Amino acid sequence: MAAPDRRYRWLFWTLALVGFSVDQASKYSIFAWLYNGGRGGDHVVIPGAFNLVARYRPELIPEDLPARFLRSFSGEHWPYVNHGALFGIGGQTGVGNLLFTTVSVTAALGIILWTLRSTAARDLYLCSALGLILAGAMGNLYDRLLFGGVRDFMYWYRYIDWPVFNVADVCLVSGASLLVLEALFRGDAPEPQPVAAGATAERV
User: Fold this and answer.
1) Would you say 140 and 152 are in contact if contact means Cβ atoms under 8 Å apart?
2) 195: which DSSP letter?
3) Does 199 map to a domain?
4) In the annotation, is 123 catalytic?
5) Which residues, listed in sequence order, are joined to residue 54 by a DSSP beta bridge?
6) Among residues 23, 123, 143, 152, which one is catalytic?
7) Who contacts 72 (Cβ-Cβ below 8 Å, separation ≥6)?
8) Is residue 80 part of a domain?
9) Would you tell me the crossing angle of helices 9-33 and 167-185 to the nearest 10 degrees?
10) Considering the domain boundaries, does residue 51 fall inside one?
11) Residue 169: active-site member
């Protein structure tokens, strides 16, 4: 009996949408929790190792700004954002934000087109990796479009003083790592074998 032609686009989209939702929910909730009248704050999760942090700029979000509710949901002040890429790579300039916005859009479109290939859709690990990468790309792209940069709030400083990051960054790193493992240890997804004409589904 021929193996079923399983496709995992549902897993790809599930990981992308769930990852994006968790990223945005965590950003809005942590920044609202640590708003502190616009002064921001820190919350110790693991003493001497890991904090949640939120920083705000002194400028207020203008009342007449389009989509202001989405920008001011966590507080009336602009949140401090990272204009660079993953873990702060790329500096803190508006030019960096524009560059990485373009990269995010291009990457998201490329990933979606990749999953339209039948061989990609049949690969469980590849769909998982691409779903996580798309989740991270969409989460940070949303921030870049609304806030001019990425809201970071997780700070690990034990052993390594790690740049502040967020859930989208975790999705990106996890997806990229899975891609590397896919390339190193697994071959291409097998092509489905056609059932020969006149063959019976079961043997008596």
Assistant:
1) no
2) P
3) no
4) no
5) 41
6) 152
7) 61
8) yes
9) 150
10) yes
11) yes
